[in-house]
Amino acid sequence: MKLQHLVLHNIGPFHGRYNIDFTSESSGSGYAFFAENNRGKTSIYNAMRWCLFGKVEERAKTVEGRRYKGATKAIVGEGKILMNDVAYESDDVQEMSVILFAQGSRGTIQVTRAAKSMTKFARSDDEIEVSLNVKIGDAPLLEGRKAQEAIESFFPTDLARFFFIDGESLEEYTEMMQASSQSGLKDEVNAVLGIPALVRGDEDLTRLRRTLKSKIDSTTKAAKQSTKARDDALAQKRILKEKMVVSDEIKKKLEAVLEKLEQTKKEMETHAELAPIVEEIRSLDTQIELKKANLLESAKDKASEAKIAWKVMLWDRCETVHDDFVSSQELASTAEATRKSTIKSIEDLERDLADMSGLCDACGQPLPDLEKYKNKKKQELDQRTAVLEKLNDQVHVSQDELAIKVGDLKKLRPLDDSRTRIIAADEKWKRMKNDLESLNEQHRHLNSKLTEGKKEDIVELGERKGRQEAMIQRRQNEWKIARGEVELAELELNRLQKLTTGGEVNSEDHKLDNLIGKLIVTVKDTLLSYRESARKKVELLASETFRKMNNAPEVYTDIRVDKDFKTTILNSKGRPSRDPSSGAVSIMTMSVIDALRQVSGLDAPVFFDTPGRSLDEQHKEKLLEYFWAPDGQQFLIFAHSGEFTVDETLENFSGKIARAYTISLPGDHKTCYKEGCGSDDVLHDAYGKKNTCNSCGFVWDLTSQKTLLLPVKIKEVV
Amino acid sequence: MDNFDLLKEEFLIHGKKNGLAPELLEEVLQFLQTNRNYAAGNREHIRRDLLKLLKDSLGSKS
User: Fold this and answer.
1) At what angle do helices B22-34 and A195-270 cross, to 10 degrees?
2) Lowest mean pLDDT: which of A158-172, A695-709, B44-58?
3) In sequence order, what are the beta bridge partners of A692?
4) Residue A192: closest CA among chain B residues belongs to which residue?
5) Out of A197, A516, A601, whose CB is closest to B54?
6) pLDDT band (50, 70, 90) for residue B2
7) Do B50 and A205 touch (CB under 8 A)?
8) Which helix (H) or strand (E) holds A419?
9) Which of A3, A28, A152, B26 could join A658 in a cystine, given CB atoms 3.0 to 4.6 angstroms apart?
10) pLDDT of A478-487, one tens digit each?
11) For the segment A99-112, what is each residue's pLDDT rounded down to a tens digit?
């Protein structure tokens, strides 16, 4: 992939739009940006990173071999931001963008990332909307996540460290490479070695196989279920067949009985005129049987009632005697009562006479007519005494004797309704007997109308019809049950037949599973051996590069890369150098980074910020000598004037350098910087703070903060 | 010989040991290499294409 253009808009010190052209007819792969500090070298470097990855991180720090990521730079806000300060603080619309044009194997690539405030003045990135779109060749424009995925396909984030090299972080790289812990570089090394192709391939194949296995397993399970269902269905078919046979047999039997019944009915029709008589006789038979039973019951009732008939009859005879005794009892009782009252009245009279003093109880005066009164009482006493004597003379049977006699007779007395019940029972029995005789008479009468033979035939036909009808009822019930069982068996068969579908084992799936399994084994085996092969390759390439770039190839001959990609400089005797120079160590680091970049096989430009830091002149020269090889990968350096001067670099690397730019402010220029002039005949106005070119008349404001990105004229090499 | 050749060499050696055809191995590796930079979470379409590739290879074999 070759970078063609980079368009910066309101990013870093670049206010407005700046187009950086990377196209060149030269075969050189060198590209350089020269500037003093704080003019915008790193901003271009960061603009590229932001355009590709959507974020720019501050320099990472490494403490005891452990790498700590730098914070992500904000687009807007306080402190150092990505957006140009003037655009952020003064422009009507706060926006910035970077557009990258490149030529790749799939055609022209255009990546556009833009940031724009969603509010009148965005105070933080939360108020900034970032958009991304990517156009590759003739393919449709990709946006958002798809666009980022496309970038990843030609410029993966995890390899960024090997393409965006920060000279100021070279020590950090060195520390990571020399430290016992490789946690900082491990992922990148793996990525560079192309191991992700295998690792992700392994993951892809494993997931494919898992899905396939799941499908095969479920198919196998379904096949097992289907087979079982088929077996069950076959068994169910047999059951259904048996049930149908049973049902058919019952049906046939039913039909046979129905047929016989029809026949019986036809036979009965031949005796149709006698049938009512027969029916009536049969009815009479039933009635007679019933009557007989009733008569028997009635006879029993009658006999039961008759058990006390003797009492009734005896009472008829002794009732009068009983009543006489009762009357005598009453008379005796009355006489006794009279006698007792008479005795009492006699006693009262006698006491009165005895007690009579002749004086008034109240006043004590002698009573008048006492004698008269006494005589009257004596007469009355005499009368009573005569009555008592008369009563005493009367002869009576004793009351106790009478009570015994009455009691004995009462035992013979029946209940009041006994007679009525005996009569009613008798009358009922007689009535029933008459009814029975009447029925028997009717029976005899009807019987006389039939010959014995016909009667037997009709009776036999009736009985047969009854039996057949009962049999039909039974058969119909049996057939109903049998049909129900057939229907149930059919339903079960249908259910099982539905389960028999599906579950066909696909042999293609098994073949595919086998193939994927072999590929997974291949990938895993390759991963095991390839890392070692790659290590050797990295070691070889890094050593080759190291020998080309280090200024003492006779002392420091090789680089050893161990299994953890820990690196060591070896001396001419093949032993680790005890105290290599800092320049040699930096070159070792660069060599290993380059070796890793080479083995990554990724076709992308390399961006090297502050490349000369910590290198001496000779190493710096050798570095560019190596990286700016003709027809090599684009190699961009962002150099401070202290690292590389423009003139010397152009002089020393003419033919290897394709494009170069200076980044400056107007105040930096003492010679005319107008394109095509370059005159050093300049009038400096310290008071007015401006310079005027005496050759072309161009005037520039020395206080202007407008960043100048000026192309450097490259000498053509003949 | 660049890195890819080295990887291919190793891959072919191990694949052949597992009884896989060199043409298929080359095709699969090329595919994995081409799609190596797609993130793990966005490889559904890659897997779909890989499956198609493998199915096609079985079809051509039969």
Assistant:
1) 110
2) A158-172
3) A683, A699
4) B3
5) A516
6) very low
7) yes
8) helix A418-447
9) A28
10) 999 999 999 9
11) 999 998 788 999 99
Chain A residues lying within 8 Å of B25, measured CB to CB: 522
d(CA A48, CA A164): 9
CA distance A545 to chain B (A): 15
Q: What single letter denotes the amino acid at residue A652?
A: N
Q: Is 70 exceeded by the pLDDT of residue A66?
A: no
Rounded to two decimals, the ipTM of the complex is 0.95
| B2–chain A nearest CA distance, Å | 7
Mean pLDDT, residues A396-403 taken together: 80
DSSP state of A57: B
What pLDDT does residue A663 have? 92
Cα–Cα distance measured from residue A256 to residue A472, given in angstroms and rounded to the nearest whole number: 9
What residues contact residue A598 under an 8 Å CB cut-off, 6+ apart? A541, B2, B3
Cα(A520)–Cα(A96) distance, rounded to whole angstroms?
Answer: 47
Contact between B3 and A193 using a beta-carbon 8 Å cutoff = yes
Nearest CA-CA partner of B24 in A518, A526, A530, A513: A518
Tokens (6 digits) for A306? 């008759």
Average pLDDT, chain A: 87
Q: What are the tens digits of pLDDT across the range A133-191?
A: 999 988 888 998 888 888 887 787 777 878 888 887 777 777 777 764 545 566 667 76
Q: Could you report how far apart the first and last alpha carbons of chain A are, in Å?
A: 27
Residues of chain A in contact with residue B43, where contact means CB-CB under 8 angstroms, are 200, 203-204
Q: pLDDT tens digits, residue range A630-664?
A: 777 889 988 887 888 888 888 888 888 889 999 99
Distance CA A46, CA A58 (A): 10
Give SS3 for A659: strand
E strand or H helix at A512, and its extent?
helix A507-549
Please state, as a whole number, how many other Cβ atoms lie within 10 Å of the Cβ of residue A32.
Answer: 27
CB-count burial class (<10 Å; 0-12, 13-18, 19+) for A117? buried
Contact at CB, B2 and A149, closer than 8 angstroms: no
Check CB contact under 8 Å for B33 and A518.
Answer: no
Tokens describing residue A299: 């006879």
Check CB contact under 8 Å for A598 and B6.
no
**Token reading at A606:** 């390399």
Q: Alpha helix locations (H) across A271-362?
A: 275-306, 309-355
DSSP for A350-368, please give it. HHHHHH--SB-TTT-PBPT
Contact (CB, 8 A) for A103 and A96: no
B51 contact residues in A (CB cutoff 8 A): 208, 512
How remote is the C-alpha of A462 from its chain's centroid? Answer: 72
Phi, psi of A660 (to 5 degrees): -145, 145
Burial of A452 from C-beta contacts in 10 A (0-12 / 13-18 / 19+): exposed
- Cα(A599)–Cα(A615) distance, integer angstroms: 25
B41/chain A closest Cα distance in angstroms: 10
pLDDT band at residue B38 using 50, 70 and 90 as cut-offs: confident
Please report residues of B whose CB lies closer than 8 A to that of A529. Answer: 10, 14
pTM of the full structure = 0.58
Residue A95 to residues A16, A115, A131, A148, Cα–Cα distance (Å):
10, 5, 11, 20
Contact (CB<8Å) B7/A198 = yes
CB atoms B32 and A198 under 8 Å: yes
CB contacts < 8 A, A to B, total 114
8 Å CB contact of A533 and B15: no
Rounded to whole angstroms, the Cα distance separating A21 from A97 reads 17
User: Residues near B48 by Cβ (< 8 Å), separated by ≥ 6?
Assistant: none
Whether the CB-CB separation of A45 and A639 falls below 8 Å is answered with no
User: Reduced to 3 states, what is the DSSP secondary structure of residue A37?
Assistant: coil
Look at residue A483 in the predicted model and tell me its pLDDT: 94
In one-letter notation, the amino acid at residue A106 is R
